[in-house]
Amino acid sequence: MQTGGPSGGCLTEKHLDTPIDYEHLLASGSMMGSGGMIVMDEDDCMVSMAKFYLEFTVEESCGKCAPCRIGNKRLHEMLDKITLGKADEGELTRLRNLANVIKDTSLCGLGQTSPNPVLSTMDNFPEEYGIHVHDGKCPAGQCKALMHYIIDSHLCVGCTLCSRVCPVDAISGDKKTPHIIDSSICIKCGACMDKCKFGAISVQ
Amino acid sequence: MDIVKLTIDDKTLVVEKGTTLLEAAKTIGINIPSLCYMKLEDLNFENKPGGCRVCVVEVEGRRNLAPACKTVCEEGMKVQTHTVRVVNARRTVMELILSDHPAECLTCAKSGECDLQTVAQKLGIREIHYQGEQSHYKGDKSPAIIRDMDKCIMCRRCETVCNEVQTVGVLSAINRGFEAVVAPAFEMDLDHSTCTYCGQCVAVCPTGALTERDYTWKVIEALVDPTKTVVVQTAPAVRAALGESFGMEPGTLVTGKMVTALRKLGFDYVFDTDFAADLTIMEEGAEILDRLSKHLSGDKEVKLPILTSCCPGWVSFLEHNFADMKDVPSTAKSPQQMFGAIAKSYLAKKLGVKREDMVVVSVMPCLAKKYECTREEFSVNGDPDVNMSISTRELAQLIRNANIDFKQLTDEEFDNPMGESTGASVIFGTTGGVIEAAVRTAYELYTKKELKKVDFEELRGMDGIRQATG
User: Fold this and answer.
1) pLDDT of residue B454
2) Which of A92, A104, B434, B450 is the most exposed place for a label (fewest CB within 10 A)?
3) Do residue B180 and residue A64 have CB atoms under 8 angstroms apart?
4) CB-based burial of residue B417 (10 Å sphere; 0-12 exposed, 13-18 middle, 19+ buried)?
5) Is this complex's ipTM strictly greater than 0.85?
């Protein structure tokens, strides 16, 4: 559950009994902010969510102080790296340090709260960050760069429907033989999976 | 005097109310690193936008860190200037600033004199953990100033000095967020703006974002050209500032060594701008007398008062902001330009050199002089009276390039006749000096008597209206 907009934070089921008022929300790591509330499930990627809010902050920064001007830009770039599967082992430590320093040193309220979506998702969903960085996977299946469509050769009957629907000709195979997807061409649009009548195509 | 008592790094101190943490810490020997903060002691002027966040400190009871340059001491405050939290924040912010700055130190004009470099060294930054996209802006090359805003760290010192000290009002922060930068309106080039090229922004820039336009290579090209007669004129300030570049005490007069060095560099004639300052003052002295006489005989059209025309920055300022007052300053050229005009007419004729074969170089303490010599009215058929103007720093660079051991040089004299001057030309550089010099000339022209006591000390200084009798 996300409350408070881009300056707010994410809460989990353990916060379900939290009364919705300024003090309690603040104490639980989020805030009232704009008063908005977004409910998300396991199909939403928390790293992408934090990145989405950072995009807003980068856009809104006035540019006067260095931590907000450059720091938020770097936070966004780091989150982007994580969602692209390009982050290394030290990324999460650096990410947390940078988020804390921006909060601690920024001149105005925007910079002092902009890392909240990062810090609260890191606190409440550490495993999601870990899986992105260490395993190169997105549990919610939202980070396209970390997804791979594959065809189960036991289920595929070679009907060619998927290769005909693929907009980038990434699927090859002869009639009545199992097809394969070239992941270097695949744009992960999901059209093949939608079309397959045999449930042979899945995301990993 | 209201006072407050506080502790900084567990030391108790008492300071005047209104003192900042940065200043208070300094009084007990704690130098908190800072970057955007700047204090112009002479003018008692401060730039403290609190933008760089390098000077942050921990204040007990405060949620976040406080910028020492902007936070005022309060009664009972407990401040820590180097806890792990503070040092980590300071280093991280510094790494962020460096991550958006080109790593061109080896070839940067400011290398060795760069505040960003100095603070990064002080904080011991050896690695930048937060690399990413760098901001890029269009380059701007005016006759006097080069702007490379990729190197801007948004300290806003130039903006403060341009707007609040010089009141020129050209530079201000534009764009927002990561694209924010200090520039003239609409990011136009300086030579399309109302910039006067006073050079104060260059003087306060902590990095290589604002630098003077370097003409040293053009000078070398002229010096090695056998068809050219190269004449140099040096302004009075240069002989007092040049020694500092070679490790001498600031202010040491090195006139003789400077002349020797210029000859060694290959200049054919070494002259003194003071010679032309004397010409300027004779013109200005005569002009003020002429205007006064006309005014006293009832001429209502004559413009009074007379203002100096020696400073090209001041002239541009007047042209841009008070165009209806352009006839108030004296009609006399500045000493630099008078020298150029005389060199390329009288001297060229005397030496039997064609005008186009003579190159006049000036060594000046001011960047606006670089712009002044490019002004169209100071040229004949496209040939400028003064071909190029270099700064004291550029002259020092030329001397170093030529492997000259400046300190070991013997003293030599200026060439004649344009190396001679009077005391009137020397006082040009001080506030009130030009009017004092003009009054000396006017006195003698009017009374036809020799002025016994030449000093009009009452005319010196910063007062708006100054009076003197002789």
Assistant:
1) 80
2) B450
3) yes
4) exposed
5) yes
- CA-closest candidate to residue A132, choices A119, A120, A115, A145: A145
B220 touches chain A (CB under 8 A): no
CA atoms within 13 A on the CB side of B330: 25
Dihedral sign, Cα of residue B173, residue B175, residue B180, residue B182: negative
Q: Is B97 on the interface with A (CB under 8 A)?
A: yes
Considering only CB atoms, B154 lies closest to which of A63, A78, A106, namely A63
> What is the chain A residue with the closest CA to B57?
A105
Domains, chain A, in order of start with CATH, read 2-135 (1.20.1440.230), 148-203 (3.30.70.20)
Query: B130–A112: do the CB atoms touch at under 8 Å?
Result: no
Nearest CA in chain B to A94: B129
User: What residues of A are in contact with residue B129 (Cβ under 8 Å)?
Assistant: 94
A108 close to B (CB below 8 A):
no
Whether residue A67 and residue B85 make contact (CB cut-off 8 A), yes or no, is no
pLDDT of residue A99: 98
Burial class (CB in 10 A: 0-12, 13-18, 19+), A157: middle
Note whether A76 and A114 are within 8 A (CB): no
Residue-wise pLDDT for A61-77, tens only, equals 999 999 999 999 999 99
Confidence of residue B470 (pLDDT cuts 50, 70, 90): low
Domains and CATH numbers, chain B: 3-97 (3.10.20.740), 100-128+135-212 (3.30.70.20), 216-277+333-459 (3.40.50.1780)
Q: Max Cα separation, chain A?
A: 65
What is the rounded CA–CA span in Å between residue B470 and residue B460? 15
Residues of A in contact with B99 (CB under 8 A): 70, 74
pLDDT tens, residue by residue, A106-159: 999 999 999 999 999 999 999 999 999 999 999 998 898 888 889 999 999 999
Return the number of CB contacts < 8 Å for A and B.
Answer: 92
